[in-house]
């Protein structure tokens, strides 16, 4: 984790990272970051499947992105009104700028120069008229530090693919290439546990 966003103490001992389900805008094939698209019927079914998967788990806190697809998924998954549910603005997905709503093939065809710059995986890359990778990672790490410091026991985080990958990179001290290769399906769960002074993966990309 970037030292600028590290925390003096860690309260949470477990963290469950859940990616929201499919959206009406086809998030499975289209790049939607800053666009506030809603869950589809399939996405709601995926969230209900996660709720069933985690029904025996006891969470002390639930944190989610304020974007409607993550917000709705969090409400579906967490049925106990006594569990605090917080929405952090820093957990929004990255802003893809001009590419919002485009497919991978659209980017290749419509913006070949931008596509090639993006594929170089430069950490300084900024999506056209959108957000830079560096700025995105900084705010996600800031949110993660806050969650870990203020949480206790098991914390559930309902967010987006990019946010989950940034958190995994920070918690597990991964490089960019390794992080990119990690799968993170819609409606999936990543479970990590703190063991002494490090985090370990218990289950990765678990799909109900």
Give me the CATH superfamily: Phosphoglycerate mutase-like
Order of helices and strands: EHEHEHHHEHHEE
Largest sheet: 6 strands, mixed
Beta-strand residue percentage = 15-25%
CATH fold node name: Rossmann fold
Q: Approximately how much helix is present in the residues? A: 25-40%
Domain tally: 1
Provide the gyration radius in Å: 16 Å
CATH class, please? Alpha Beta
Structural descriptors:
208 residues, single chain, alpha/beta, 6 strands, Rossmann fold
What does this structure look like?
The structure is a single chain. This protein is α/β, with parallel strands linked by helices. It has a single domain (3-207), classed as Phosphoglycerate mutase-like (Rossmann fold, 3-Layer(aba) Sandwich), CATH 3.40.50. The chain has helices at 41-53, 68-77, 104-110, 112-119, 133-150, 161-172, 176-181; strands at 12-19, 61-64, 85-87, 153-159, 188-195, 198-207. The protein has a 6-stranded mixed β-sheet. Helix 2 (68-77) links the parallel strand 2 and strand 3 (85-87). Helix 1 crosses helix 2 (68-77) and helix 3 (104-110) packs across helix 4. It is globular and about 50 Å long. The protein starts with 11 loop residues before the first strand and ends with a strand. The model is unreliable at 1-9 (pLDDT under 50).
């Amino acid at each position: 984790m970037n030292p600028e966003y590290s925390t003096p103490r860690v309260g949470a001992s477990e963290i469950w990272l859940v990616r929201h389900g499919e959206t009406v805008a086809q998030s499975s094939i289209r790049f939607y970051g800053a666009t506030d698209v809603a869950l589809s019927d399939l996405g709601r079914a995926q969230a209900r499947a996660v709720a069933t998967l985690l029904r025996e788990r006891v969470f002390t806190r639930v944190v989610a992105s304020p974007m409607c697809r993550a917000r709705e998924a969090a409400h579906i998954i967490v049925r106990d009104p006594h569990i605090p549910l917080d929405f952090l603005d820093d957990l929004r997905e990255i802003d893809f700028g001009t590419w919002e709503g485009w497919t991978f093939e659209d980017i290749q065809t419509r913006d070949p120069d931008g596509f090639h710059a993006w594929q170089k995986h430069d950490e300084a890359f900024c999506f056209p008229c959108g957000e830079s990778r560096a700025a995105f990672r900084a705010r996600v790490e800031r949110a993660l530090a806050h969650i870990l410091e203020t949480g206790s026991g098991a914390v559930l985080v309902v967010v987006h693919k990019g946010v989950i990958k940034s958190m995994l990179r920070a918690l597990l001290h991964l490089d960019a290439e390794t992080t990119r290769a990690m799968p993170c399906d819609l409606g999936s769960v990543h479970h990590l546990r703190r063991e002494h002074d490090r985090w370990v993966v218990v289950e990765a990309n678990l799909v109900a």
